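Observation: inputs received (chain + NAP).
Thought: call the complex predictor directly.
Action: predict_structure
Action Input:
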Amino acid sequence: MSIHNVAIIGLGLLGGSIGLAIRERAPDIVTTGYDADADVRKRANERGLANHIAETAAEAVCKADLVILCVPVGAMGKAAEEIADALPDNAIISDVGSSKESVAIALANALPGRTIIPAHPVAGTEQSGPDAGFPSLFAERWCILTPPEGADEQAVATLAEFWEKLGSKIEIMDAQHHDLVLAVTSHIPHLIAYTIVGTASDLEEVTRGEVIKYSAGGFRDFTRIAASDPVMWRDVFLNNKTAVLEMLGRFTEDLTALQRAIRSGDGETLHELFSRTRAIRRSIIEQGQDDERPDFGREH
Ligand code: NAP
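Observation:
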């Protein structure tokens, strides 16, 4: 089974990047894009995010052998309902949502009896919209497939092959485990960034001008994450509630332990933790998941 026609529903950062990556790395595949927002469709046409831009979701999917839903996780169910009656019999339906268990349920409810293989390319930036996409977004990044129990193995292999063509490395995982792993590697870090940036902007003793002026001390690195799309992240926290709350509980305990170490002057505890975390950064660089230059390679 191979993919010839891909329908991309939602033409923001993820949908646009998929369209551009296909054009660059798999030009034999024909892409049709659709977005609920007419201005986004217009911009997608101008940027060539897909070979054709359809005016309705049904028109976009009617010839597709792979449909990828690239909308916020809270909109997945509605987007799936909109294509239900127009899908060709053998089409594979997938998505790129950042949380997987609730999306799998929403898709299964909207599209009973269909071949649904959810996926999550662990690649992104803090930008969103039709101007944000770029073709190399998925290169050397992991794409996690979360096939439901009893999923069609051929369809899983076909989807894996598709993502490999776009430059991704494939991992297969149970949806629940995915949600726990991503809670700690992505969702909690976003929550912390949103909190620290929010706290700084609410301070009265230190002015907002001072916060911005001295941001190179570390604050600005949190502001990149905290500038991420509010709709997307609202939906991630509402849809990955259980795993996020579990990981947040652990994080809060660790934070309290650090608070205690600082209060009691326990330098050994602080030094031991900071040495372990430095080693994690080294491993990320060794595995090619970030730039090894100091300060992320920023020019000074
Ligand atoms: P985005 O740039 O905001 O694009 C999403 C687009 O989908 C918007 O243009 C939105 O239009 C449109 N849309 C919403 N409901 C729709 C519907 N029913 N039918 C058609 N289009 C619809 O978001 P993104 O960053 O690409 O994120 C898309 C998905 O990828 C999310 O599920 C997110 O969790 C996941 N993801 C994101 C990242 C990241 O770093 N950003 C990384 C990995 C995965 P409106 O704005 O008018 O609603």
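Thought: report the result.
Final Answer: Residues 91 and 166 are 19 Å apart (CA to CA). Residues 9-15, 34-37, 40, 57, 70-73, 75, 78-79, 96-98, 121, 124-125, 128-129, 132, 229, 232, 236 surround NAP (CB under 6 Å).
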